[in-house]
Amino acid sequence: MEDTNFSLIRESKGGSLRDFLAILFKRKAAILTIFLATVVTVTVGSFLMAPTYESHSSLLVKFGREFIYRAEVGDKAPIIAFNQEEAINSEINILTSRDLVERVIKTIGLKNIYPDLVEKPPARMTAMEAAVIAFQKKLTAEGIKKSSVIEVSFQHQDPKVAARAVNLLVDFFKEKHLEVHSGTQSTFLESQTNRYDQELKNSENRLEAFKQKNRVFSLEEQRTLLLRQRTELDTTLKGTKNRIDEVDKKLASLRGQMKTLLADKDRFTQTERDKIIVEARAKLLTLQLSEQDLSSKYTDHNRLLVNVRKEIQIIRDFLKEQEEAIGGKVRTGNPVYQEAEKVAIMAEAEEVSLRTKAATLQMQIAQLDQDIRTLDLQEKDLKELKREVTTNDKNFQTYLDKKEEARISDEMNRQKLANINVIQAAVAPSKPIKPKKALNILLSIILGAVSGLGFAFLSEYTSQRFSSPESVEQRLGLPVLVAIPMKD
Predict the structure, then answer these.
(1) How far apart are CA 370 and CA 229, in angstroms?
(2) Mean pLDDT by 10 residues, the chain (488 residues)
(3) In 415-436, which ranges are continuous DSSP H helix?
(4) 146 plus 240 within the same structural domain
(5) How far apart, in whole angstroms, are the C-alpha atoms of residue 462 and residue 165?
(6) Pair (147, 177) in one structural domain
(7) Number of domains the chain is built from
(8) Residue 213: Cβ within 10 Å count
(9) Residue 391 shares a structural domain with residue 471
(10) What are phi and psi of 478, to 5 degrees?
């Protein structure tokens, strides 16, 4: 009998499975109660919980004009600054912004989307603020990795409200996207275009007035013409000076011959002298006729007319001198002397005429030099005016092009031509995502079983009674000699 008891003790020490089963049988009522309570509570709660529906929509963000930076002025080539991840994150922030959420709520109606907040508004905030917070908690927007797709979802107890909220949010997002990326530049570009248009007209008017005032039309042609005239006049002047040298030499030779003939008393003849006067008068008449002809064509300051009048005055002085010399006497003499004197007088007249011509040519050359210098100064002013016209025209064309781009962009924005495409519009879901009754019941079974077992072992561990020989030995520190099984 004693050996049998010790064998039972040894079996109880090594039988952990028996202890486990013993605890289960001992606490079976509590385990079963906790299990059933958990399962029933979760099951009833799952059936009584209001269903929650989730509606989805997919958006494709395309790389387009919104992500291209265009300079206001200057270089017309667009600068592409695009990072796909940054662009997607930016669009998600715009999509979930408070402005769009509040606009969706106002469009649907606060009473239709969150009637509880209308009936019992919160104490520390307005009903709209609470609705926005609640909406954002149920709103999810995330980008699909390695793509340009954004998934948008919203949860609500009414499937139609969930679908409408998502679709409205997407529509408002497309408008907001255009508003954010377009900017307001049309008014500025319009004013700048008008400004440079007026400045261009003013500069063109100043350029035209300068040309009319200074009679400047083609500087290169005018400069070439003046240089050609100066070359011709300079050539003529050199020829005239050479002719003057020849006449001077001729006069010197004639005067030498006349000195030799001075000893001859009969050196003058009235008849030959009269011929010189007649020729001088004939030339005077010719010049007077030329003066009348030129005065009918040109003004008194014309160089040709001034030169003719100077020659007329020289011949008149010459005639006066000759007439005074002849007035008191009648000369007869050597015909050779008379011929030499006649030639000398003609040479003197020619010399005077040539010197007058040379002086006139020098004046004309000086005037041409002055005109060329004036033309150079006018060229500087003309270039400045042309540069101003070119600059204003470039600015005007630049702002005109920018204005046209802005007009096209505004027109595209008005027609809502955004680079955001809806892949899948939101529809009212047919099945709720919450509660998941089967999953809840399965989890309640697991939770109930774990809770019941946990309660049983915890109760057994904290109990002050001895339920096995091992617990006696552990608590009292004494060996168990005999174990008698309890029977009902």
Answers:
(1) 13
(2) 41 58 76 84 74 85 60 51 74 87 90 85 85 89 85 88 89 80 65 82 82 70 79 89 87 77 51 68 81 78 81 83 58 61 81 86 86 76 82 82 67 57 82 73 83 77 64 69 67
(3) none
(4) no
(5) 55
(6) yes
(7) 3
(8) 9
(9) no
(10) -120, 150
Is 375 found in the same domain as 263?
A: yes
- Tell me, yes or no, whether 45 and 66 share the same domain: no
Report the relative pairing of strands 149-156 and 420-424 from DSSP bridges: unpaired
CA 136/CA 95 separation, integer angstroms: 11
354-358 long-range contacts, CB within 8 A, separation 24+: 354/240, 354/243, 354/244, 354/247, 355/244, 356/307, 356/310, 356/311, 356/314, 357/240, 357/307, 358/237, 358/240, 358/241, 358/244
Q: What is the pLDDT of residues 314-336, one digit of tens each?
A: 888 887 877 666 544 444 445 66
**Contact indicator for 377, 249 with CB cutoff of 8 Å:** no
Distance of alpha carbon 260 from the chain centroid = 97
Q: Parallel, antiparallel, or unpaired for β 53-61 and 149-156?
A: antiparallel
**In terms of residue numbers, what domain contains 118?**
51-182
Rounded CA-CA distance 11/18 in Å is 9
Question: pTM of the predicted model, to two decimals?
Answer: 0.45
Shared domain for 38 and 61, answered yes or no, is: no
Q: How does DSSP assign 306-348, residue by residue?
A: HHHHHHHHHHHHHHHHHHHHHHT----B-HHHHHHHHHHHHHH
Query: Is the separation of the CB atoms in 101 and 169 below 8 Å?
Result: yes
Q: How far is CA 243 from CA 358, 386, 475, in A?
A: 10, 48, 157
For residue 253, what pLDDT is reported? 83
How far is 198 from 35, CA to CA, in rounded Å? 90
> Exposed, middle or buried: residue 263 (CB in 10 Å: 0-12, 13-18, 19+)?
exposed
pLDDT digits (tens, 9 = 90+) for 181-198: 665 556 777 787 888 888
Q: How far is CA 76 from CA 172, 279, 283, 397, 406, in A?
A: 32, 81, 75, 11, 14
d(CA 77, CA 64): 15
User: In the structure encoding, which two tokens stand for residue 370, read together?
Assistant: 């002055």
Residue 257 CB neighbours (<10 A) = 15
